[in-house]
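Hi team,

Below is the intake form for THOC7 protein from Sylvia borin. Please confirm the fields before the structure is written into the shared record.

FORM ID: S-0412
PROTEIN: THOC7 protein
ORGANISM: Sylvia borin
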Amino acid sequence: FPSDEVIRKRLLIDGDGAGDDRRINLLVKSFIKWCNSGSQEEGYSQYQRMLSTLSQCEFSMGKTLLVYDMNLREMENYEKIYKDIENSIAAAHEKISECKKQILQAKRIRKNRQEYDALAKVIQHHPDRHETLKQLEALGKELQNLSHIKENVEDKLELRRKQFHVLLSTIHELQQTLENDEKLSEAEESQETQMEAEAKQ
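The structure came back. Fields below:
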């Protein structure tokens, strides 16, 4: 029995294992027999065998060519599929990159919305501009009214201060008058006492 190495070599020589090497050997043997044939019948028989072997070789060759062409088309198809896969992978990478950008943008938008919502809640706790202006206007009027009241109070205080000054001056003058009257009374009493004393003498 042939070994595995012999079988492997025969398969390599035989191509796809269709028996081409054997057919060529038979063709060579038939050609040698045809050359060495002694009778016409034997030569014709060998000639027919050679034609049959040639037909088989041509058929095997055609089949091999068809398989070769099919393999080429398959390779072209595989290359096209491979390129399509590469293009699909590149497109998928681009789409993934674009999706990442969209995710980042969505995160920024979400963060901004959260900040806007927080600011809106803070703003809602404060009155609006129209209400604030009304309050400021009311406070302005109240301040103006208080200013008038202050001026009136200051005028009254000034009047009372002047009145009090006049009162003090009057009191001082009255006190001087009383003191003068008292001195005058004391002088008169002293004079009367002296006169009474002189009259007694």
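SUMMARY LINE: Helices lie at 4-13, 20-35, 40-124, 129-200.

Thanks, M.
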